[in-house]
Design goal:
Chain A is of the alpha/beta class and 593 residues long. Classes of the chains: A alpha/beta (593), B mainly alpha (274).
């Protein structure tokens, strides 16, 4: 029988000044070599639980701790963090704050060097860890010049060099693009499966978690509300997942919905391949020919819809090139893009592809090196950012970069005051924005920085709505948010769009892009390589692969099931469900005849 | 402002950190003691050659040099105009007056003086030499090596790592500051408008988030370092053990000898001073 590596016994932890505990009576046992995933909405206590495992709580972070945390035989109340660190490696979400040395090999050596190990031993560990995380050849590089995924791999190598038996990861991919996410997950999986390392990971990426984890723990308001194997959680606890706003793999949700209608007989699939097999069995005999005709028809229809809704060109990029000072290469090259009034455009592409650089041109934060950008008829070269901001509401990814006031009300009035609006207009703007952003009036007197992450994001979002701009640009609005909050933000943007506003959003979350955008611009190495409705974009897997983008799971499923009559380019679960319902009911009718 | 370390397989990178410390350090020492513009101009050759051999990315100096230029111009003008201390042996002949001597004090007699102008030009070269030397040193020497030098000089390791953190997170904070300014500008904020007092007060939307981010980041970095056993033992093992090779002995000895001769020449023959 495998021994317990981590034991939490009736653990309750309360932060100073908090009225209720962040974790409440948690009991957990993790066996050697097990992969446990912790899922939960923002503020559910995931990070607090992980910080208990390396002794950061109670030694570094103050609060009241009840119960015991035993890790690799050490009681974390008694052992010092450096001693626990030799057994538990902790990876944070932001790779930037974990890297302190100027070159990769020194970064990896930092931990063992702190332990005063002999130089030869450190060198051996550095070499071995860099091999494990597949960073051989980058030893002498400056870690800050690496990609997000590579930086996080350096951070992992740095904790591996301490030779811990347990790897604890706190949302290790939340700040990475899809490519980085894939790299880090495959690395953690290898550490667990190949090297037998015990892994405890908090994350929102249900598809990866379903594939790799042995056990899932669902936390909500500091309590364990569900626990079990991925198949158990994604099959039996779907109601809890929905209630707490936690995403499940699209194929699992689809199967669960079909099961309710008695159309899915076997177990709930966790991965795409499993779903393909079962769906193929269900759809057996369906005509492929019909599907082809249907796809072409649908894509044409989609193109027509776009033609019909085309309005006034509100943003125009004319042969735009942009180069950052001191850079050798162009960050934007040959950009010719027209965005029409009332469009809901998604900008996608891997990190460094130029999405944010392009969006900053719309508000004049960056000015083209060559070419012109026109916003509502105004040449951005001739207008200041403050002038353009009257027309363009730009919401940055991190709300903490803008919140500074002593009260939410003051924060919300900051923008309209800068535009010298009348007090009654400011007041009206504040209450309208609060309503749209789903915020209560009771928070108006509270300091914005004291609010939770989700609420801070909403305040930042509301602070842009207050002067009612025509265009709304939002940079990765859902990064680090749970599914419930992400859907809320996207629904709000949709509402805003319905009122005739133009919305441009940058995102790495393809499910949301597929669900909300009316047009998608794919960027790669500073160029727009594809600019079409989502249905067209997500069937061009050749181009998407070039940009390291993977379509949503349900679209991938549809794209792979053409042989069984499923049209490619299905974007959402609802669409897929509708198609299957129609097809299968039609099939039933035909059999009856 | 400072160049970041980059690994390159060059002659300068391969030198022992102590040798680099002596080579670049002597440049700074000369910068302090020499005032003659010809000597100061010649002084620029040493860091220039070293940086050239180290394949220094000159493009990275463009932005800091742009920022430095107004200050250099101001210093040159200021020195040329007002420096009239008899410390300078060169005649204080007035090249031309900006305000005639008969004008009342302090403007009366203000003009460009020969000696002061030479001193100003020398100072310009001294600043450029020091700027190149400091950037060259940090470009070719890893901060861990600098800490190693510091600890061997008796400075506590914790002090070295604190300095390393400041050096490491300086550019990050600069970037964060830029992002905050952009975020506030996107809400119509303009810091350039209004009276002086208003402009000072207008910095609040940038300073508050910046302090908050700095504190948050410091907290997370400390947590990450603790998680990697920082401070577990008194001794820290450095990954590299540097040896003093023949070339290091040669260059260090040569530099020190040249420096000693120069100091002697300066004291007894006033070579290098105005």
């Amino acid at each position: 029988m495998a021994t317990s590596h981590v034991i939490l016994e009736h653990v309750t932890f309360t932060y100073p000044g908090a009225d209720k505990p962040a974790l409440n009576s948690i009991d957990l046992e993790v066996k050697k070599g097990e992969f446990v995933a912790i899922m939960g909405p923002t503020g559910s206590g995931k990070s607090t639980l992980l910080l208990l495992l390396n002794g950061s709580i109670p030694h570094y972070i103050e609060g009241t701790l009840e119960g015991d945390v035993i890790v690799a035989g050490l009681n974390t109340k008694e052992a010092r963090i450096p001693n626990i660190a030799q057994h538990v490696g902790l990876i944070f979400d932001d790779p930037e704050v974990q890297l302190v040395c100027p070159i990769v090999e020194e970064e990896v050596a930092f931990g063992p060097a702190n332990l005063g190990l002999p130089r030869e031993e450190i060198q051996r560990r550095v070499e071995s860890c860099l091999n494990t995380v597949r960073l051989k050849g980058l030893e002498r590089r400056n870690p800050y010049t690496l990609s997000g995924g590579e930086k996080q791999s350096v951070a992992i190598a740095a904790v591996l060099a301490m030779q811990p038996e347990i790897l604890v990861c706190d949302e290790p991919t939340s700040m990475l693009d899809p490519l980085g996410e894939k790299k880090v997950y495959s690395l953690i999986r290898d550490l667990n499966k190949k090297y037998g390392m015990t892994c405890i990971l908090a994350g929102q990426e249900s598809e990866e978690i379903a594939e790799f984890a042995d056990r899932i723990l669902i936390l909500n308001h500091g309590e364990v509300v569900a626990e079990g194997s991925p198949s158990k959680v994604f099959e039996e606890e779907m109601y809890i997942l929905e209630k707490t706003g936690i995403g499940a793999p699209q194929v699992s949700v689809l199967a669960a919905r079909m099961k309710k209608r008695n159309l899915w007989k076997s177990a709930i699939p966790l991965a795409l391949e499993e779903a393909k097999v079962e769906l193929a069995r269900i759809l057996e005999g369906n005509m492929a020919k019909q599907a082809v005709g249907r796809v072409e028809g649908e894509i044409e229809e989609q193109e027509m819809i776009r033609e019909q809704t085309e309005g006034k060109a509100i943003i125009r990029f004319d042969d735009v090139y942009f180069k950052y000072p001191e850079a050798y290469e162009y960050a934007l090259e040959n950009i010719n893009l027209t965005i029409r009034e009332g469009e809901f455009l998604a900008l996608i592409g891997q990190n460094g592809s130029g999405k944010t650089t392009l969006s900053k041109h719309i508000i004049g934060i960056l000015k083209p090196t060559q070419g012109k950008v026109f916003v509502d008829g105004c040449d951005t070269l001739r207008a200041s950012t403050a002038e353009l901001a009257r027309t363009v509401g730009y919401c940055f990814q991190n709300p903490d970069h803008q919140l500074f006031s002593l009260s939410v009300k003051e924060e919300l009035s900051f923008g309209p005051s800068n535009f010298s609006l009348q007090p009654n207009e400011i007041e009206r703007g504040i209450y309208d924005a609060l309503k749209i952003a789903g915020l209560s009036e009771s928070i108006l007197d509270l300091p914005p920085r004291a609010l939770g992450k989700g609420e801070r994001q909403r305040v930042a979002f509301a602070s842009i709505l207050t002067w009612n701009p025509k265009i709304f640009v939002i940079d990765e609005p859902t990064t680090g948010q749970d599914l419930k909050e992400s859907l809320f933000i996207m629904d709000t943007l949709k509402e805003f769009n319905k009122r005739g506003k133009t919305v441009i959003f940058i995102s790495h979350e393809m499910e949301l892009v597929a669900q909300y955008a009316t047009r998608v611009a794919v960027m790669c190495q500073g160029q727009v390589i594809l600019n079409a409705p989502p249905k067209t974009v997500f069937t061009r897997t050749d181009i998407l692969r070039e940009s390291n983008i993977e379509p949503p799971q349900v679209t991938l499923l549809a794209n792979n099931m053409g042989k069984w009559g499923v049209p490619p380019g299905i974007l959402t679960l609802d669409e897929m469900e509708e198609f299957l319902e129609e097809t299968l009911e039609g099939k039933k009718d035909a059999r009856r005849v | 402002m400072l160049a970041e370390y980059e690994f390159r397989d060059t002659f300068v990178h391969r030198l022992n950190p102590y040798t680099k410390c002596i080579l670049y350090g002597v440049t700074i020492a000369f910068m302090i003691i020499w005032t003659d513009p010809i000597y100061c101009a010649a002084l620029c050759v040493l860091p220039l050659t070293l940086n050239f051999l180290a394949r220094f990315p000159w493009r990275k100096l463009v932005t800091p040099m742009k920022a430095l230029t107004p200050m250099l111009i101001m210093i040159t003008l200021f020195y040329s105009l007002v420096w009239a201390v008899p410390l300078v042996r060169t005649p204080q002949t007035v090249i031309f007056y900006i305000f005639p001597p008969e004008w009342p004090f302090p403007l009366g007699g203000l003009g460009f003086r020969y000696g002061a102008s030479l001193l100003a030009i020398g100072l310009l070269f001294r600043i450029i030499a020091a700027f190149m030397a400091i950037n060259g040193f940090f470009y070719t020497t890893s901060t861990t090596d600098v800490i190693q030098i510091m600890t061997k000089a008796g400075i506590p390791y914790q002090f070295g790592i604190t300095w390393n953190m400041a050096y490491r997170f300086g550019p990050t904070m600069k970037l964060k500051g830029k992002e905050i300014i952009e975020a506030q500008r996107a809400r119509g904020w303009e810091s350039e408008k209004g009276s002086f007092f208003k402009r000072i007060m207008a910095i609040k939307p940038v300073l508050v988030p910046l302090f908050d981010i700095a504190l948050d980041m410091a907290n997370k970095v400390a947590l990450a370092m603790e998680a990697r056993a920082f401070g577990a033992k008194k001794d820290f093992t450095y990954l590299k053990a540097y040896k003093f090779r023949l070339i290091d002995w040669f260059l260090s000895a040569l530099t020190i000898v040249i420096f000693v001769i120069s100091v002697y020449a300066l004291i007894f023959y006033q070579r290098g001073s105005l």
